[in-house]
Amino acid sequence: MLRVGYPLTLPAELLHDFPEEIALIAIPDDPDHVIEIDVWIPDFFPGRACRQWPHLRGVRLVLSMIAGVEWLPALVGPEVTICNAHGAHNVPTAEWVVTAILAVLKQFPFYLEVQHAQQWKRRFEAGARYATITGDARALYPPVMLEELTGKSVLLVGYGAIGKEIERMLTPFRVDLVRVARRARLDPKVHAVSELDSLLPNAEIVILILPISPQTHGLIGKQQLGLMRQGALLVNAARGPIVDTGALVAALQSGRMRAALDVTDPEPLPQGHPLWSCPNLLLTPHIAAASPQCAPNAVRVVAAELRRYLRGEPLRNVVQPGALTALRS
Amino acid sequence: MLRVGYPLTLPAELLHDFPEEIALIAIPDDPDHVIEIDVWIPDFFPGRACRQWPHLRGVRLVLSMIAGVEWLPALVGPEVTICNAHGAHNVPTAEWVVTAILAVLKQFPFYLEVQHAQQWKRRFEAGARYATITGDARALYPPVMLEELTGKSVLLVGYGAIGKEIERMLTPFRVDLVRVARRARLDPKVHAVSELDSLLPNAEIVILILPISPQTHGLIGKQQLGLMRQGALLVNAARGPIVDTGALVAALQSGRMRAALDVTDPEPLPQGHPLWSCPNLLLTPHIAAASPQCAPNAVRVVAAELRRYLRGEPLRNVVQPGALTALRS
Fold first, then answer.
1. Cα angle vertex B63, ends B49, B66, to 5°?
2. Do A199 and A260 belong to one domain?
3. Residues near B147 by Cβ (< 8 Å), separated by ≥ 6?
4. Distance from CA of B119 to the nearest CA of A (A)
5. Are B147 and B133 in contact (CB under 8 A)?
6. What is the pLDDT of residues A260-284, one digit of tens each?
7. What pTM was computed for the model?
8. Radius of gyration in angstroms for the set of CA atoms belonging to chain A, rounded to a whole number
9. What distance in Å separates the CA atoms of residue A87 and residue A183, rounded to the nearest whole number?
């Protein structure tokens, strides 16, 4: 019988969603003995998963409950087959992106200050903030108190499952969307990432939602930030190291641009790091996918992959083929 | 030639959008003499408009640049025809509603505190906040750090132009939407406001976007707030007095519910008012429509109404018929 190790912390009622013809073996955060399993479902938090791994033996297949598994190959080695939780967290991650964009455009961080200060009339400060960051020097009346998302130009960098979900959620806002992915394709039109530098100057909002890899590490550096227009908003819901943190801090401190980040480099971001207090920055501590639906959705995706494996069908979410898939093909 | 008074503060380039066959007369904030005009376009801010009015003579028609004109009949009297700026501010107002809902569900006010404190690990406090306000006592793993809008039950109270725009922007979130308006109708199904009390207990989010009137004043009182479920979110983007402020303060202080308000009663909300510091409240100082597109959109709607008037066509946005319309019909 196939032995499947899962995190002990997983709510018990979710175990019913796994196929019956397996032996489910709970893996504690810090196992005190060696555990023999065939398939490993690591903890949601990479830090905990890394503590579990040294105690495991016999693992041939890793079924991750998260999408970003760039840390797994180095942990388990090249022989182990790795699948990610493709599609499990599209909705909350895309929702976070839309929320972050809207919150910045509506100056919600400033209005929370106003609420705490209990000073209704400070709303008239929003116009100067808008003029300073965007460079729009027109004397507008009534005074500007927020911006609209509707009609803005958006550069979507990454067009996988989450990128498509973001596009879907942006539809009612009639944004002018330009897509970028590793390779150019048509229908819908997607530009190759090699065209990125020529596309950056046109975007009012740049969304990063692509996997981290040697090719995307540092993709947004000093040069790319310099190509963004005055007041443009950079949104990172992918992985921190896709952006050069030092260059981002400098660009934000110069007042040239805005950013909304759910991921940083390093992570966790230590207290006192200059990024925390940059102007025009909204920073959340890697929370986008952690909704009440997170575990149920992840288990659903992992259980489906497990059923395919048991039936001898091709796995769908392979990110590292490993020996298992190599033997099969 | 028809004399049309407009606020002097209106950006000059927008005057080109008005029809040519009229005399445009600028009205300052505090006129120092009597001004004879036929049509009055009041300032965006009711306070300023009220200071302009006593200096005006001959006004037969008022074309407002805002949607909520409940204060105008008492100012100009029953003989004057009043039109509002129907449709001019649908987009930013609906965007504010979606932003406010998402920001509350994502606990952005809490995460801004975390950002200021520079304490990444405080994200683990979000789960207790979620459990306390919603009453969801399940031991969830991974810990809850935010909620999803997708799939939530929404009660949309008010189904005019802005209500429909809100519905459109909520479409990608696959919410379970129930509509309420003054009168019941079909296709799509809209419930009568008389059914409100029976509908409130089912909603996770209640959105108020209906005009203020003697019928809607105090529509949401102690009884209605008591009918809302634990952790439900009340969103008011309409007018403050639709909600009983004292009852709302009590409900928020009891920890039973959440609210997001762009309007309050009284307005401006004075410093020290207990509403400012209620728990689980996001409060912005009546800003929803004040985007850079505000004046251009308002002028577009008002100019179209003015052209209809000049051509002798029926006016479209009449909210008080007055003598003008009475004579015509």
1. 65
2. yes
3. A291, A292, B105, B106, B107, B130
4. 6
5. no
6. 999 999 999 999 999 999 999 999 9
7. 0.96
8. 22
9. 20
Assigned token pair, B144: 């809850």
CATH number at residue A41: 3.40.50.720
A152, A270: one domain:
yes
Are A282 and B91 inside 8 Å of each other by CB? no
Amino acid identity for residue B298 in this structure: A
Closest partner residue to B148 (CB to CB) among A130, A270, A291 is A291
- Helices and strands in chain A: count of H runs, count of E runs: 11, 15
pLDDT < 50 positions in chain B: 329
Question: Residue B18's domain spans which residues?
Answer: 2-88+293-328
**pLDDT the model gives residue B311:** 94
| Residue A128, domain member (yes or no) | no
Beta bridge partners of B234: B206, B259
- Which pLDDT score is estimated for B277? 98
* Residue B126 counted as domain residue: no
Tell me which residue in B172, B290, B293 faces A143 most closely, judged by beta carbons. Answer: B290
Per-residue pLDDT band for A129 (boundaries 50, 70, 90) equals very high
The answer on B241 and B159 residing in a single domain is yes
Contact A211, A188 (CB under 8 A): no
| Domain assignment present for A270 | yes
Closest of A72, A98, A67 to residue A160, by C-alpha: A67
Are B314 and B260 members of one domain? no
The string over A266-280, giving b where at least 16 C-beta atoms fall within 10 Å of a residue's C-beta and e elsewhere, is: eeebeeebebbebeb
The answer to whether A99 contacts B114, with C-beta atoms less than 8 Å apart, is no
ipTM of the complex: 0.96
First-to-last alpha carbon distance for chain A, in angstroms, is 23
pLDDT of residue A329: 41
Test mutation, A95, A116, A286, A297, chain B, max B CBs within 10 A: A95
Query: How large is the average pLDDT for residues A308-323?
Result: 94
User: In the numeric block, which tokens belong to residue A211?
Assistant: 């996997």
Residue A172: partners with Cβ closer than 8 Å, 6 or more residues away: B168, B169, B171, B172
- The total domain count for chain A is 2
Q: What is the DSSP string of B35-54?
A: EE-SEE---SSHHHHHHHGG
Task: Kindly list the distances between the CA atom of residue B173 and the CA atoms of A91, A205, A289, B151, in Å, as whole numbers in the listed order.
Answer: 9, 21, 15, 7
Active site residues of B: 239, 267, 286
CB under 8 Å to A280, separation ≥6 — which residues? Answer: A104, A133, A252, A255, A257, A258, A259
Question: Do A254 and A300 lie in a common domain?
Answer: no
Rounded distance, CA A241 to CA B239, Å?
Answer: 46
- Write the pLDDT tens digit of every residue in A26-40: 999 999 999 999 999
Select which of A86, A239, A256, A258 is catalytic.
Answer: A239
Residue B329's pLDDT is: 40
pLDDT band at A323 (very low <50, low <70, confident <90, very high): confident
Beta bridge partners of A4: A24, A39
Beta strand A39-40 with A61-63 is: parallel
Give the per-residue pLDDT at A325: 66
**Structural domain contains residue A142:** no
Chain B residues touching residue A92 (CB < 8 angstroms): 146, 148, 150
Report residue A37 as tokens. 């399993």
**Domain identity same for A308 and A257:** no
Residues A62 and A97 in one domain: no
Residues from chain B that touch A271, judged by Cβ atoms under 8 A, are: 118-120
Tokens linked to B126 = 């979000």
